[in-house]
């Protein structure tokens, strides 16, 4: 009986007393912190994302992904503060995407490398050749832009914003509602000073009358082009920033973005003239015009603005935050 009692005592000690002195690796009431900072303390290095690239889904650290986005989306010759603004926008965009249902176009991945759908991506190793003898300088700049803004994102109402960006504005950015039809409080029209003076600000493309009619009629067979070319394009409605929202071509109502896609125009901020057998289309700026202008960011950085000033200029009413633990 005594032996039995001693055995019970030992068992009781094994079950209840000893575990108190054994340190638990984590406490479930304290939720495991995610992402777990790595040895170098970088949140980006510790955060894994899934990317649909070259027909396959790959898992990679967020910092490597952001380096690849930066190398593809913005010239590495741009000032460091512009690169930092770009990387914070890209990190935010990625986290915003991560919070949405994975797109069926991604095979379940959080983001893809199609620039028309998510963000372009070019691994640094692939960019090296193109950079030639500047490769080391550019690689250091890109790595520094990512690491010096480690984990930083833009928030609105406490959530990562849809931090869209584009190449060059027409002097003003576009409101999201004017381009995509739904109002987004932080994607409003803002002035982007200095861009109208840039090289490549205005570009002109020309089509012969026949070429123009053929391109449009292929996609919109109901279009009718009368004898007077000055009546082919009518009812142009523009946004405050100047982008064409709606227009009528050959009697068929279109969105400005429809014509932009069909004629491969640089932006929807276009004007059209028809004379002497030629349709001439002039565009201002480059890209959809919503959110941060990359050339605008470059100009602000050259003026001495830091990346947070740049981001606050283009995304209205946002706060700065970090990827949450
Ligand atoms: Zn995508």
Task: Describe the protein's architecture and organization.
There is one protein chain. The protein has eleven helices and 14 strands. The chain folds into two domains: 43-169 and 290-322, no CATH class; 202-284, no CATH class. Helix 3 packs across helix 4, helix 4 (80-98) crosses helix 6 (135-147) and helix 5 runs antiparallel to helix 6 (135-147). The model is unreliable at 14-38 (pLDDT under 50). It has a three-stranded mixed beta sheet. A three-stranded antiparallel beta sheet has the order 5-4-14. A three-stranded antiparallel beta sheet has the order 7-12-11. It starts with a helix and ends with a strand. By secondary structure, the protein is of the alpha+beta class. The radius of gyration is 27 Å and the shape is elongated. Bound molecules: zinc ion. Zinc ion is lined by residues 103, 105-106, 111-112, 114, 117-118.
What's the topology here?
Layout (H helix, E strand, L loop, with lengths): L1 H20 L21 H4 L1 E6 L2 E6 H12 L6 H19 L12 E2 L11 H8 L3 H13 L4 E5 L2 E2 L4 E2 L9 H5 L21 E7 H11 L13 E6 L5 E6 L2 E4 H7 L7 E6 L2 E7 L7 E2 H9 L4 H8 L4 E4 L3
Parallel strand pairs: 1-3, 6-13
Antiparallel strand pairs: 1-2, 4-5, 4-14, 7-12, 8-9, 9-10, 11-12
Helix pairs in contact: 3-4, 3-6, 4-6, 4-10, 4-11, 5-6
Zinc ion binds next to β3.
